[in-house]
Design goal:
Layout: E1 2-3, H1 4-11, H2 15-23, E2 31-32, E3 39-41, H3 43-57, H4 62-68, H5 73-107, E4 114-118, E5 121-130, H6 136-139, E6 146-149, E7 163-168, E8 174-178, E9 181-188, H7 194-207, E10 210-212, E11 216-222, E12 228-238
Antiparallel strand pairs: 1-3, 2-3, 4-9, 5-7, 5-8, 6-7, 6-11, 9-12, 10-12, 11-12
Amino acid sequence: MWRIGQLARMAGVSARTLRHYDRIGLLAPAAVDAATGYRWYGAGELERLERIRALARLGLPLHQVAELLDAPDAHLRQALSEAVAAVRADIAALTATVERAEDHLGARMSVLPRQTTVGARRLRVRRLRIEHPSELGAVCGGPGGLLLTWLDAPPDGGFGGGFDVAVGAGRAGEALTLPVRDVVRAVVPAGTGVVRAGQELLGWVRRRRMAVAGPTVEEHLVDGDGARAAVLEIPVRPIG
């Protein structure tokens, strides 16, 4: 029989850990001296401790280790399969976070895109044909202004024959419903032009291997204090 300190040294754990295992019912000592309170452990406890540590190293939390210590092998394999799937999901999420950060650093973007899902939206619009982005300020940009543009990417070599837009038109406009959709969304920082922000967002979409799936929405908002903000939303879908 070994005292708690001896077992701790043999197994490479702390005496505090062994006391904790005892408190939560995971590893009780073989005997406790009634006079001194010393805990005594034997070969059976050493074997159980090694199994506890092995299961913990496989990524299982202690409450699950307690459930599986004496469970059939099939139950253990199922729990490990679920643990592996959870770890892979965590790795994928962390990898995506790193990729977004590296993309932002490499592209020197002024906007911080966020991919999300937005609900359906009913609008009243007036359709126009624009020859060049410089014309957009005359039709949209004031407080409460709404602009939809049908562009898959920044035009190469000029704007040629122009492009289609629609602006908010109140009750007199044409009815247009935007469905529930996945979008890349960004608030345009103060001092950054909307055209530049839109180009950065379209570039971000291409680098993420996505395609534009509908009209880009540009909305100019104003709060109760008169402060303004512009929000861009590009609907997207995966390529392939």
